Amino acid sequence: MITSLLTRHFGFDRLRPGQEAVISRLLAGKSAAAIFPTGAGKSLCYQLPALALPHLTLVISPLLALMHDQLAFLRSKGIAAATLDSSQTAEESRRVMQQASDGQLKILMISVERLKNERFRRFIAHIPLSLLVVDEAHCISEWGHNFRPDYLKLPDHRRELAIPQVLLLTATATPAVMADMQAKFAIDRNDLVVTGFYRPNLDLAVLPLAGIARDTWLREELHRDPAAPTIVYVTLQHSAEQCAAQLQASGIRACAYHAGLDPALRSQIQHDFMAGRLHCIVATIAFGMGIDKADIRRVIHYDLPKSIENYSQEIGRAGRDGLPSRCTVLASRAQLPVLENFVYGDTPDRDAIANLLDIVRQSGAEWEFSLLRLSNETNIRQLPLKTLLVYLEMAGVIAPAYSYFAEYRFRFVLEKQAILARFNSERRQFLEQVFACAPQARTWCTMDFEALWQGYQGERQRAATALDYLQQQGWIELESKQMTEVYRVLSQQIDTATLAEELHGLFEKKEQSELARLQALLAFFTSTTCLSHELARYFADDAAPERCGHCSVCRGEIAVLPPLPSPGLPNEHGLRAWCDPLIALCHQRHPRILTRFLCGIATPLTTRLKARDLAGFGQLANHPFAEVLAAVSALYPAES
Question: In what residue span(s) does the Helicase ATP-binding domain sit (predicted)?
């Protein structure tokens, strides 16, 4: 069966290593995990079984661009697949949902956030599902390099939807992360399929370069073979713009690519690169996920990657056609403070955690909030705030009840009376009440659920279900906004000080883990043993040769990255001149708040106060965070 499906639908005559082992397990009714390097064909491990399984395969995918690329591939093979995503119109979403309801789809791709949508959960609960696929499954591991709290809820969603099988896909799972993934989804150890991480066609090199020397090398390298498809990775969006502009000035057609660009422009740049009309992309990590371009000849890290896992994923985009390709890191310790600042920015202050706990304690039996507003209220970034909520769940303080959109609005596609005429008796009466509680402003009607309850004892969920049905029939166009989370408060007897200390300790542990990951990255780049072997060993692949013969270490070019002299800090007067305007704005002297400000780390507080406009913001971005914190703590000891 496998060979027949492979040939008929995909045009391949054989599977790659590991693919058959995964596919066979799924077709035998088991769950599995595929830990393959980037470009090794993980996607086929669900695409082929989806054709043989009786019901829908639901795929959790991390990026919109990735979903669209996968969708284009599947449709080119005549496979019934679709996405539900934020780029679609209401009519497009309605059409996809109807296709799924009618059993016309084999594969449906969504983001993990889609499962927070109460309308979607109501819808998908009525669709028979055969398989849940979790791409980038390492995101479920709290100690992985890219933890995403929403992934922690996937095992619960699987149980609620009664999905019999699960497939986990990742290219960057260390042994500890593999064990974590396996435990959370109850996958048998024998059903973890790990293939080798060694890529014999990749030439790995680390060059200790900084400043002008780095720019000169990059220009010369690109001029040496200007038609070679190349990705140049940088850390920051403005670095992508600057680097691309410098390359263009030297006669190289290069385009910046990052999440801050207009989506249409990003899409055009990606299409030009895929079609060979553009040979060089200067990108943040927003570029590359799911890019299936086989002939990328060079991956150059102009800045240090964020971790060994990121490095492995990014170089994995080179040479997928098996031909020789070069992966070069232009390394310097001068790039380290920027990466460290990403880490420090995600550690909430102990006082902020205590503030959150007080909000929970005072909320009553049910706690409703908007994540954005809560982030602003507590001065905790949204990602660590989501993590905190998960920690509170694990501590038995709160439990998720449901989420809903605070605002539903709709416009009539069919005349109101024509819709009502399609219903009889009580259902018609209920719809009349719904429409009566949805005042119309020109075109759109905004649903007032409170008025529906007060006036008619009409239940919110029934009204939302009715509006969903009307949209599915194409009689109204429906929009929902302002996601609101509702949690049950299981314990209001919170020892705020003690629990805040414990939770802060967890974040400090995570912070130290991430900083250690950066040190491991530097140790890897300055290794005196084969880079290919060291990289494979990091991912528990002991089959790689001890000497590849084609990395910079094997060529005798060991990278030395000497510690940089401290750039020195301003005197007390200079620090006060930068910090005092922020203190006047926010009425806080907490050393970490001030240090983040000086190091250019945006927080909800500084964003709300438009503190980026103050002279001190980012003045010490290239200084080690710990040194700045020590100086600020000495200067403002009152709250240190």
Answer: 23-191
